[in-house]
Amino acid sequence: MSARGAAAEAITAARVRKVYETPSGPVEAVAEASFRIARGDFVSILGPSGCGKSTLMLMVAGLEPATAGSLRIDGVEVSGPQVDAGMMFQDPTLLPWRSVLDNVLFPIGMRRRVSAADRERAEGLLRMVDLWGFRDKRPRELSGGMRQRVALARALIGDPRILLMDEPFSALDAITRDEMGLALARIWDTTHKTSIFITHSIREAIFLSDRILVMGRRPSTIVEDIRVPFERPRQPSVEADARFNELYLHLKASIHRTTAGAA
Ligand SMILES: Nc1ncnc2c1ncn2[C@@H]1O[C@H](COP(=O)(O)OP(=O)(O)OP(=O)(O)O)[C@@H](O)[C@H]1O
Ligand SMILES: [Mg+2]
């Protein structure tokens, strides 16, 4: 392994498999997944419901052990929960009795005493997600999109090596969702975080990503790995590009094939 290769590669999955043992028997969630993600790349995962996307992300986060295969982050085998992974889910899971600022600081407080520098960083992140004026509010005083922006700031507070997002915008209305996509693209422009983003929205995936992986169902493996050709910073006008629509139709057909092929 060359030192250069190791430095450029943030996430490596080699023939990762996951079988859940359940009372009614084993469930094969991921048959075999292999991929490499370069440092700083934003990679989306598309695929039909139940194909194992969340399971794959939980394995990268070290929250579910792989049944077989190997997963590495920065060359180190994942063997337990990754402190260096910032995570976002469909539900922002904010603590209702804490202020916005304290919610952002929560992961730090779990590990050690919160310092003045941590507070400054949290305030900076709240500025970045456009919520600085709301830092003393409680989550119930915020809209759904604002809550997800708090969750994004919280995911970034520890300056994680990787950002893992599982359908973070799925519960939002279409307009807020578009705004969140744009906000996330702008944040990636400044942070260049290596990111895995799970979504059911093909357009969102194209708009945000450097690469898109399509997972197929039964056996669940990665059936496509596509590089998105558009420049950064991404502008909303990219959707008017003929290649955007071509890619959209290609991915739609690909997902449809994998769904139609399922038993
Ligand atoms: N903790 C668990 N125990 C047992 N089976 C599980 C568990 N989590 C997921 N599964 C099963 O593993 C398979 C993959 O689930 P997973 O949640 O990873 O899919 P997904 O692609 O994220 O689906 P969706 O798009 O609906 O979120 C499904 O058949 C699911 O029922
Ligand atoms: Mg899922």
TrEMBL record:
The keyword ATP-binding applies. One of its GO terms (molecular function) is ATP binding. InterPro entries: AAA+_ATPase (IPR003593), ABC_transporter-like_ATP-bd (IPR003439), ABC_transporter-like_CS (IPR017871), ABC_transporter_ATP-bind (IPR050166), P-loop_NTPase (IPR027417). Gene3D superfamilies: P-loop containing nucleotide triphosphate hydrolases. Transmembrane segments: none annotated. CDD domains: ABC_NrtD_SsuB_transporters. Residues 14-242 form the ABC transporter domain. Keywords: ATP-binding, Nucleotide-binding, Transport. PANTHER family: ALIPHATIC SULFONATES IMPORT ATP-BINDING PROTEIN SSUB, TAURINE IMPORT ATP-BINDING PROTEIN-RELATED. Belongs to the ABC transporter superfamily. This is ABC transporter ATP-binding protein.
